[in-house]
Records
---
Amino acid sequence: MKKLHKLLLPALITGLLGTAAFAAPQTDVYIGITSAGAKKQPVIAMPAFVAKKDIVSAAQEVHDTLRADILYGRYFEVSEDGPAFEVKNVKDTLSGWSKQRAAYLIGGEMTYEEPHYTIKLYVYDVATQAPVFAKAFKGNRSSLRRLAHIAADQIIQTLTGRRGIADTKIAFSNNSTGHKEIYVVDYDGQNLKKLTNDKSIALLPRWSKDGRIYYTTYRYKNPDIFAIDLKAGKIAPVIIRGGLSLIGGVSPDGKALVFTSSKGPNPSIYIYNLETGEKTQLTNRRSVDGSPSYSPDGKYITFVSNRAGNPQIYVMELATGQTRPLTRTFNWSDSPQWSPTGEWIVFAGRESPYHPFDIFLVDLTGTQLRRLTTDSGSNEDPTWSPDGRFIAFTSNRDGGKRKLYVMDADGSAPHLVADLPGETFTPHWSF
């Protein structure tokens, strides 16, 4: 076949760039496109946190990080233009913010007792003056940003009933060192870390719900699957010396991997049981089958196959093997990923050889197709945020190099996440 599998192309690129320092963009809040008649968001009052002079800067960092997290979720507007929070006189504070028509008040106080900071956060319903959230968070100086992320998610969950994404990360491959290595970055582009030093080709990181990252690497001169245990700080082989092994995804229960293997005459899709080491072949056709991804309930997979001609998106029911196409007309389709709600599949598609790749959504009937990107350049490698409200992807729209972007799930408000040297490939958002 002219192109064995598009996922292999990044892995075969030999013109890798040299070492350079990474730079994350300035943290901003990105507001999606809303209609003229859209309902106005309720206001959260968030005055400066109470802290002694020697730790004011640390308190401000937590305040600003928490504020940015809440704004990013776009459930609320945030106002700081009002009375200061007074722990001992909450009612007067709430009365003052009631005049500002705030719906909720987030108050905070920070103390320091070497080596730990303690952040006490309070959330009040301004109208009823009733507390709805109160919790203390404790950590050292280096953990303050993460504590703010954790607090933001808990506050969003309390006020909306929906999970937040502030304490999530995006893993990806980048070639800035002269090799493709696996990196991880916070959802907002901060706290970048290099996870591998394989000095070869490492790509396709895939998160499991327990925090591990599985990926494909040429560390042993063969495309094998390894696992990164972030808690233990260890990297270990999972599937090695088995021909081509391209990781697709991890089952929702964390007990299995779905992957592409070329051990047989044609690249096919397999399931690997992490507990027993057993491999189960799912496809066995005279075609190239790849890029598999689990449904949220683990009962289905979506994948790419050229069995009917050009690569198209398919869905398979694992219990029966019943398979059906979701797309039929694309010149090339790639990298399907199931939405957390199970309603949509996002993928990269090219409508003709003369078009660049764009990001699309397709429903499970194959009748609803939505284009999300229309920008210049090629837009590829989509991955969902765990709340289903955002999509990360790679694009060369600015300057020719593939970089990491995030947009709303409707295609609005695309923005650069991390401005890294070299090129970025195959991102995957944590659970």
---
Amino acid sequence: MKFIDFPSMNVKIEGMENISIPKMMKIRQIYDSFKIENLKEWIEREMENNLSHKENFKGKRICITVGSRGIPDLDIIVRTIVDKLKEWKAEPFIIPAMGSHAGGTAEGQKDFIAGYNITEKTMGVPILSSMEVVKIGQLPDETPVYCDKNAYESDGIVVLNKVKPHTDFRGKHESGMAKMMAIGLAKYKGASMFHMKGFSSFAERIPQVCDIFLKNAPVAFGVGIVQNAYDEISNLEVMEKAHILERDAALLKIAKEKIAKFKMPSIDVLIIDEIGKNISGNGFDPNIVGRSNSPGFDDVIDLKKLFIRGLTEETHHNGCGLSNADITTIKCVRDVDYESTWINVSTATMLNGGRIPMYANSDREALLIAIRTCTGIDFDKVKVVHIKNTSSMDIIEVSESYYDELKNRDDVEILSKPEDIKFDKDGFMI
């Protein structure tokens, strides 16, 4: 790991003495709350009902993909699939399938999924982590298509992934099972080759890669997962190989309907406590925040300043997404593993994702600077929103200036009176 010991800064900004931090109140944003109650039973039923010729799994080595995205109860999901395959007399194993994430190393990717409680001990099967790939075809422009060697040499691949809007492009297939085949299973080498054409080509190229993958790799079946706005699993489908692309597209439409959104159209300063690869490839979801290293997200919300406070533990110091902040803290920039982060952003060809934002010596200082540098606002009625991360969008904090705007809405519940933000002696939020 490579960290940088950034120095403290004494930033003098004219007019700061007239800026104050507003009182904040808790609110609940209300979304569609349907979720799958018993995942184990649901998965078992999906596998029994939707997969034919189960006898063909007997004695076969079946590979299950596990990506880098955080999914609620992912260990239960994977273990249930493992146990059902064992019941059918198969010999399952797991591979980390996450392109260049976790430093682009076999050890790093195995350690990454261990953070989701997916280990050989907890799953009861081998975890084969390798960066070796096999070329299985090429696109019309001669871009090679790769597949993880262990997966390719198996008797069947279970393509498991969360289906959600992507953070950098729009298309029929975004993040999901299709992208898992095109990039996740391609490992570092294949992900690098695929990204060389840029995100603008993804919508066209992902289906092309999948056609090759489905023809030339031993895909067994797919498992597509959708989360609701409360970060709970609302949809989980198991489908035969022939239906993967069709269901991937259909589940993406559902995911776009389910995604959380802010109930207010404009925010002066948004505070995000933590970002990380377990939350989104961009650290946070641009489909919620409207910030991205790619164009096309400016219409999501009117946001003036973004203050990111830190990284999740699960991201293993990967700072992807921090470049989108207008300001952060010295504590946060010192917590970034720049080697791992820059490997990730260079693989994606998005070098602007490696930029380091302005930082302050404390949360208090960062927030005051963010407010002061907003233009065209009433500083006595500044609109501040505070969230933990973009996977936790139900109970959030908003400044008291939002009260009149939100008090009569059916999809918002005001939970507390306005209170001062609490800081410790060093100026960091408690």
